[in-house]
């Protein structure tokens, strides 16, 4: 069956979402605004339904448009990766390992391991993919990234998990918040105010699975912050409460403008892990990366970096 849409159509959808303006989207693709409008009408005609709608002067994706936009992002990412691979190959890099996390940047500790790994593997380059188009396990399964750093239970027969370390999830709030005097927080404590989160779609294995769902608590309002630093600053400024992994928030507790509280009396702990595709053989670079990361976390290097100390010599 011949395809109805072409690459130019998918690129226009990505540009339209990025620029929130058809004129600016067209300019980014070296098109005129009438040409971009024609492409949108052409898409509607070819698939038989609108992909975007004008609402109060702004473009909004229809459900069909959202579906196509998701595919467009995957296509654009794959093309970008292919071009990057070719350029790196010309520079003498034979393998690239792409690492990502839907919820956490992992920038506090991941670069320390990447430095050691690349010292050992001169022809291997590593990239941190900061804006995944899907949840971590989905991004690995689809090939968007090679290694996902995430936590929680794994129920996916296409992935292999390498346990890395255990950490506690904690609630964060300003020191003058009425709940700051509590010894621990329950799921119901998060109901009266907005919840500051990385995104609207929850990552599996974190607070939604382990705290809110078991207590049958549905959050009233979620504010999407995108990155750890934004979550912290919005909570500090009194916009709501948040939940972070303890390693991610530790450095933000030093100036007494933020407090962290245990979740439930016994606390909620998660096991962080590296996920790779099951078809990766034990001799593959991706498998070696995940295995080396596991060893690095277990030999004390991870704890040293999180504590603010340089890893011991030779690590």
From TrEMBL:
It comes from Aestuariispira insulae. Residues 5-62 form the HTH lysR-type domain. One of its GO terms (molecular function) is transcription cis-regulatory region binding. Coiled coil: none annotated. Belongs to the LysR transcriptional regulatory family. It comes from the Bacteria. This is LysR family transcriptional regulator. The keyword Iron-sulfur does not apply. InterPro entries: LysR_HTH_N, LysR_subst-bd, WH-like_DNA-bd_sf, WH_DNA-bd_sf. PROSITE patterns: HTH_LYSR. Gene3D superfamilies: Periplasmic binding protein-like II, Winged helix-like DNA-binding domain superfamily/Winged helix DNA-binding domain. Keywords: DNA-binding, Transcription, Transcription regulation.
């Amino acid at each position: 069956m011949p395809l109805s849409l072409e690459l130019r159509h998918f690129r226009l959808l990505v540009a339209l979402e990025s620029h929130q303006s058809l004129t600016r989207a067209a300019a980014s693709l070296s098109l005129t605004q009438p040409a971009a409008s024609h492409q949108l009408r052409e898409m509607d005609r070819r698939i038989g339904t609108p992909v975007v709608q004008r609402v109060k002067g702004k473009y909004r994706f229809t459900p069909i448009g959202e579906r196509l936009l998701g595919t467009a992002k995957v296509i654009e990412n794959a093309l970008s990766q292919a071009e990057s691979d070719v350029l790196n190959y010309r520079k003498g890099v034979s393998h690239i390992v792409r690492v990502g996390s839907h919820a956490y940047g992992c920038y506090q500790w991941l670069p320390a391991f990447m430095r050691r790994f690349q010292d050992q593997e001169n022809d291997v380059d590593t990239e941190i993919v900061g804006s995944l188009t899907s949840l971590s396990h989905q991004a690995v399964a689809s090939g968007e990234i090679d290694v996902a750093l995430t936590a929680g239970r794994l129920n996916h027969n296409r992935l292999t998990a390498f346990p890395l370390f255990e950490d506690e999830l904690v609630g964060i709030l300003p020191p003058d918040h009425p709940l700051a005097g509590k010894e621990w927080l329950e799921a119901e404590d998060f109901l009266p105010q907005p919840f500051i989160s990385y995104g609207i779609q929850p990552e599996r294995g974190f607070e939604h699975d382990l705290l809110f769902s078991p207590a049958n608590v549905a959050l009233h309002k979620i504010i999407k912050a995108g990155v750890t630093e934004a979550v912290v600053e919005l909570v500090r400024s009194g916009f709501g409460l948040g939940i972070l992994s303890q390693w991610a928030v530790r450095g933000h507790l030093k100036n007494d403008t933020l407090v962290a509280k245990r979740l439930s009396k016994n606390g909620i702990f998660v096991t962080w892990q590296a996920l790779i595709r099951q078809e990766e053989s034990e001799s593959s670079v991706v498998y070696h990366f995940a295995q080396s990361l596991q060893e690095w976390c277990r030999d004390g290097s991870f704890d040293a970096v999180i504590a603010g100390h340089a890893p011991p010599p030779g690590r």
